[in-house]
UniProtKB/TrEMBL annotation:
It comes from Vanessa tameamea (Kamehameha butterfly). Belongs to the amiloride-sensitive sodium channel (TC 1.A.6) family. The chain crosses the membrane at residues 402-423. It is a multi-pass membrane protein. Pfam families: ASC (PF00858). Gene3D superfamilies: Acid-sensing ion channels like domains, YojJ-like. One of its GO terms (cellular component) is plasma membrane. GO terms for molecular function: ligand-gated sodium channel activity. Keywords: Ion channel, Ion transport, Membrane, Sodium, Sodium channel, Sodium transport, Transmembrane, Transmembrane helix, Transport. This is Pickpocket protein 28-like. The keyword Protein biosynthesis does not apply. It is found in: Membrane. Its main location: membrane.
């Protein structure tokens, strides 16, 4: 009934076999104030409605009238989001990777997520993430070379170079991690997705698309934060494939192929499932969902449909994507943060080293900047391995032991009992008859 057991693997995973987590960073500010005011003053009715939908608690179906919604297609909305959101070159003031100061544009790419325009780090090359990357209709993205085909199940190839992408940390501590200085630009806040200024930051698997609106951690400006990365590693023995899926409740990558993603993970499967359901019901998908060039992206005319999809569950199911099971081999990342307030008396050397902040005062730095360090604190990490609780080897050994015990009791004990009752008695009797008494 329960053929699987999860145990602690005695062999830890070394640091050089684990990729640094992918990071997605978004400014919680949904629109720059200067751009928003320009749209309100000189923009057309569509841009004004788009700005209202971005900053209002009302649903898109309540904001857009039928005569305007048809003109608010995805191409127009995409240009609006890119223009109104803080770009990555303004958000990222300083990037230090493995103690080397690097151009932030070489480390981060702009990506449209469910939180708007965000910046991503260490996500695998799109050739290794998607099955047909050329069919994607997305933003122009550049990746550092050489690229490595890493997956949680197969790991890094044996011939992977040490500086292969996705990157790996070369040691523990902040000296071998990622240090960022982020500019919130609080004066440009027009409306935010939270009740406070700052950033949403999500650590995730490099092969996954981030779901940052629901899962991102919030970090405010004016602090220095240290984030110790704690990976959670689950793997499985190959013999687990012979156990029925309904009993082991996990999937190997070869057992379920996704349409868009090359690597099977629970979140990738759920992302595809949600997109497929929305495409079936609304005949379109949201802009951050997996899609190809022929898939229609939902415009504001579809607001009544996609606005009700959050609670939609197909008939005959208890939940929308119940066919998506966890992967048998999964790697996820959790953070253990600590922080302290910035002091304007201690940030002078930072201002001198940051190109975008050289014209900024110490007061601006302490009110708008976030200094954050991401790093590992261990050289090896515990693994939890799923395996058979009673495999062929255990069956044979237990069966042999039980049979040995049974035979040892029935046969040997019977022979010994027969011996003591018959032969032993006869031998003792014959020995007693042959004894002669002493003669005088």
């Amino acid at each position: 009934m329960s053929p699987m057991i999860v145990s602690i693997n005695p062999e830890n995973m070394p640091l050089h076999k684990l990729p640094f987590p992918a990071l997605t960073i978004c400014n919680v500010n949904q629109a720059k104030k200067s751009v928003a005011e320009r749209y309100k003053k000189f923009g057309d009715s569509i841009d004004i409605k788009l700005l209202e939908s971005l900053c209002s608690d009302q649903t898109d179906a309540d904001i857009f009238e039928d005569n305007i919604a048809g003109n608010a297609d995805w191409d127009h909305t995409r240009s609006f989001l890119i223009n109104v959101t803080q770009p990555c070159n303004e958000m990222l003031s300083l990037c230090i990777w493995n103690s080397a100061s690097m151009n932030c544009q070489d480390l981060f790419n702009a990506q449209l997520t469910d939180e708007g325009l965000c910046c991503t780090f260490n996500v695998v090359h799109r050739e290794n993430m998607f099955r047909n990357p050329r069919d994607l209709n997305d933003m122009n993205i550049t990746f550092p070379l050489p690229s490595v085909d890493w997956t949680p199940e197969s790991g890094f190839p044996d011939n992977a170079p040490a500086d292969g992408f996705p990157w790996r940390a070369k040691g523990i501590g902040t000296d071998h991690g990622l240090t960022l200085v982020l500019d919130a630009n609080v004066a440009e806040y027009y409306c935010a997705s939270t009740k406070s200024p700052g950033f949403k930051i999500l650590l995730h698997n490099p092969t996954e698309t981030p779901n940052i609106a629901k899962l991102g951690e919030v970090y405010g400006p004016g602090i220095e934060a240290r984030v110790a990365i704690q990976p959670r590693i689950l793997d499985a023995q190959p013999t687990l494939k012979f156990i029925d899926v309904n009993k082991r409740l996990c999937l190997f990558s070869s057992e379920k192929k996704l349409v868009f993603y090359r690597t099977y993970t629970l979140r990738n499967c759920e992302m595809e499932c949600e997109a497929r359901i929305m495409l079936d019901v609304c005949k379109c998908v949201l802009y951050y969902m997996p899609k190809n060039k022929t898939t229609r992206v939902c415009g504001k005319a579809d607001a009544k449909c996609y606005g009700n999809m959050k609670k939609y569950v197909p008939r005959g199911r208890e939940r929308a994507c119940e066919e998506c099971l966890p992967a048998c081999t999964e790697i996820s990342y959790f953070e253990r943060p600590s922080s302290a307030m910035l002091s304007k008396f201690l940030v002078g050397h930072y201002i001198q080293s940051i190109t975008l902040a050289q014209n900024k005062t110490a007061e601006y730095f302490t009110e708008n900047m976030l200094v954050i360090h991401f790093y590992f604190e261990d050289n090896s990490f515990m693994r939890f391995t799923k395996g058979e609780i009673f495999g062929l080897t255990e069956f044979l050994s237990n069966t042999g032991g039980l049979l040995g015990l049974c035979m040892g009791f029935s046969m040997m004990s019977a022979v010994e009992l027969l011996y003591y009752i018959t032969l032993r008695v006869l031998c003792v009797a014959r020995q007693s008859k042959s004894i002669q008494p002493f003669n005088k």
